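Bench log. Compound arrived from synthesis this morning; before running ITC I wanted a structural hypothesis for how zinc ion sits in the protein. Inputs:
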Amino acid sequence: LIENIHAREIFDSRGNPTVEVDVVLNDGTLGRAAVPSGASTGDREAVELRDGGTRLQGKGVANAVNNVNGEIASALTGKSPFNQAEIDQLLIKLDGTPNKARLGANAILGVSMAVARAAANSEKIPLYRYLGGVDLELPQPFFNVINGGVHADSGIDVQEFMITPVKRESFCDGVEKVANVYHTLKKILAEQGLETAVGDEGGFAPKLGSTEHAIETLYKAIETAGYTAGSEIAIALDPASSEFYDNETQLYHFEGQKLTSHDLLAYYENLVAKFPAIISIEDGFSEHDWDGFAAQTKAQGDKIQLVGDDIFVTNPAIFAEGIEKGVANAILIKLNQIGTVTESIEAIKMARKAGYNTMISHRSGETVDSFIADFAVAMHAGQIKTGSMARSERIEKYNQFLRIEEELGAAARLAKFPE
Ligand code: PGA
Ligand code: ZN
């Protein structure tokens, strides 16, 4: 049974405060979890409770921490940690708002994850096994090696340029191939006199000027490292286009131009025709442009993966609407967008039923907590994106997969994408 719950304020990879929660059971077991934080957040995400005021630029989470240590601890003490759905229902009810605005999604998610960890630790089984049973699979990893948008000052409008080892013998083999490309990319950038310092997610942040130039540079790095772009190492983009969409004029301010939804679709179609190594585009259209996103799905959905992030915010109710309207063919899963483990699982199950792919995701502000690595394996989610080959808060997730692969041995199953 849950004996004690204690939260504290710690700091994330951007130096902003975040919530860490310890759940202690009456058998002495500890479960600890830390909550990540986004920068290009969707408008309809569950509410991340920040203190406001002057302390820590208004970003303090003392109120969220107090909510855990007070109200939530009182409600959960004495409860069994082994029924995650029940715990999460209790948290949702206790909060009482539709978007976790009262207690804070950061408070609630921290408790939700820490309870799962405590339960797994108490049973002395790995978290992925506790959450997933026997149906386990290592996901296809997407490494964000060039950072733009609000994650860097590279001046590139597209937020994420990811590479993924579509051809690999093992998870480990895939990471090794990506490491080779990553180091080659660094060399190529340096030779061109470009910046090799990294952005929020560990990708380089060079002033490459345009999306096309960034992709050309990726092709060069992949091929110089000895691989074929497309069949061995493929490319995925996250333009995070809500960030450059003008809600009033309904125009996209992209690379010095003002594009209609129609123009932007033509741009993506040309881009994919020119660079066939692109296999996935996330948030190509704004969370406020459902028609644009649906039109893209109609035009490109049978050729490439189209991932909904800001538009669905891991929210089963919003996602259901999206499925009905033919928006995207995959969903990004970020636990802190919705605020509990159980609701995240619900979104994944919904995706599976509707024939949508699922990609688990970190946030641009992270800690070394690798919960999402275990979660991806447990949910046999198929895909994950968790940053580049730099910055320990990113690498820690990939390293966790290496440990899990070693532990599973011959039983380690690899996700295949594209199928
Ligand atoms: P965020 O970005 O964590 O800053 O919201 C990640 C994404 O847009 O996928
Ligand atoms: Zn995104």
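What the model suggests: The pocket of 2-phosphoglycolic acid (ligand 1) is lined by residues 38-41, 159, 238, 240, 309, 361, 363-364 (CB under 6 Å). The first helix runs from residue 62 to 76.
ITC booked for Thursday regardless.
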